[in-house]
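Form 12-C: Joint structure prediction
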Amino acid sequence: MIPGIENSDILMPEYILAVGGMALLMIGVFLGDSAQRTVSYLAILLLALAAAVVVMSTGNGRLTAFGGAYVADDFGRFVKVLALVGAALVLVMAQGFIEREKMGHFEFPVLVVMSVLGMMVMISANDFLALYMGLELQSLALYVLASFNRDNLRSTEAGLKYFVLGALSSGMMLYGISLIYGYAGGTGFEQVAATVREIGTPIGLTFGLVFLIAGLAFKISAVPFHMWTPDVYEGAPTPITAFFSASPKIAAMALFVRVMLGAFPDASVAWVQIIVFISLMSMVLGSVAAIGQNNIKRLMAYSSIGHMGYALVGLAAGSPQGVQGVLIYLAIYLATNIGVFVCILGMRRGDKNVENISDLAGLAQTRPGYAFAFAMLMFSLAGIPPLAGFFAKFYVFLAAIQAGLYPLAVAGVFASVVGAYYYLRIIKIMYFDPPAESFSPAFEPSLRVLLIASTAFSLFFIAAAQPLVLSASAAAATLFP
Amino acid sequence: MIATLAFYLFAAITILSGLMVISARNPVHSVLFLILAFFNAAALFVLLGAEFLAMILVVVYVGAVAVLFLFVVMMLDIDFGGLRRGVMTYLPLGALIGLLLLVELAVGIWTVSERGAANLAHPTPEGVSNTEAIGRILYTDYVFYFQLAGMVLLVAMIGAIVLTLRHRPGVKRQSIAAQVHRRPKDAIEIVDAKPGQGV
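Section 2 - Result
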């Protein structure tokens, strides 16, 4: 065995994605854009295969490779499955759209696979260098995806904005990491944690921590680093917006949790107040700013800002219950969001997708099943019991109360009441407004299956919550040895 | 003594040419000053005994990156005067942010612990050249990052092609295979023309 690569077989899911992604690229290059559909289906298979490998290795305990740069534990495995499933579902729902919009380049699934590879590295990062490399791999692929519809002005604008601001946030984060490295003399999370235990948090180290948090907050689009989100969500092609709101958010949130609890467990005095602040601001802004939106994709952007705020409540608690809450939140958010974006993809008149909320008027009379599914998903996002979204919020607020963060929990409940307004407004428009012109073609079969599955998950979560809650609890426990 | 003098000479030229890069009016001059800065930084590496890094800096940055910059500056019709127009408006804010970052960096360096400072210096291991030491770190200890960097570059390449390549219809391309497979009978027709009858 060559020194330095012991245990490297625990990276099997990453190897599958890296080698498979390059193989897909070769297939695409030799068969041309006519093979886009084949490449896309193979990419879905690839993601499913990687997810299966991750699931099978669950319970193997905490293993590290490459000198501690990479860690495989149940926390990472749980989030990886979410990210992989999210990406695979997005590829399923994107197929019809990109064929209609004539964006059928075979690079699309390849870039999705590459960005998921970056997310896997992020989720398993146990070293600031691995964190940064994973983040850049993921972000670079996402910048390209945002401007994938390159003949569309708004899509290219979205890509450019995302790129410039993303590069700026990466720069801030690197500056913070360099300060932290200056104190710890190393980039491993354990080494940083040992330094903090020994010398506390001198002012320079706190500076580094703040810059690091700023960079990470940008990636999960938490306030005050959220400005890019509405423009990018609105400009990017709809399935890619769905992707942005699913896997990258989940991976970045997991990374956030792992950095804070892995590298700075003894500096919680320094970071908890920052997390409480950005969580509070995200919840409030996500609720209030969404009220005035007329474009459904912008509305979902503000909604995702708010949801990241709720998930951060669990991190602010900093306890196993809190991390469990974050994991449950991410899983439910993913399942509901996929359904909502299927509904948005279904907003078509002939060959053209429409995005205004007013286009939904009277949908209940023209397409009752569609309106019912949309309404249930909106109720779930608003957090109305007994739907799935309620339990997501329940677990994070419960953890916050157990950790003594009463003001945060109370503010979160108020913010979700305000936020319920704009979700309920969509339902009101669908059910009580005079009908607009109906959406013409029915859902494609794959979209119909996704929508039914997502709605059923939201409706019947209460009956089958046990396995998810238990596995989230087991996964959260691995972060607290 | 001479090493110290050389250090200050190279360092001063590096900083001055760095300033000239951002203040020169002519963008081609900016790139030339950038090349000067690279050369002096390479000289600083030589003073540190890191001759491999010095050579790489010259080969990669001067040989490839700076030449690429020169091409971009000369071939793209960018209105550099227009780019500079807003500078004075944003200067106070930019200067404030720069100053803040500088203060933070100063505080950071000032308060950095003895422990961290002791860990920072990685001396070259005994008995191997620094080239070999870099190779060991890059391909053994950091092989994970090395491979990941390769993936990042691959994605960058795919992205550049996806966003810029346009297949124009009607472009005639050379096909070597088709040329090689041409037989005389595909191209030449032998016509037996009888006298007085034409073809």
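Section 3 - Comments
Residues 28 and 35 of chain A are 6 Å apart (CA to CA). Chain A touches chain B through 51 residues (CB under 8 Å).
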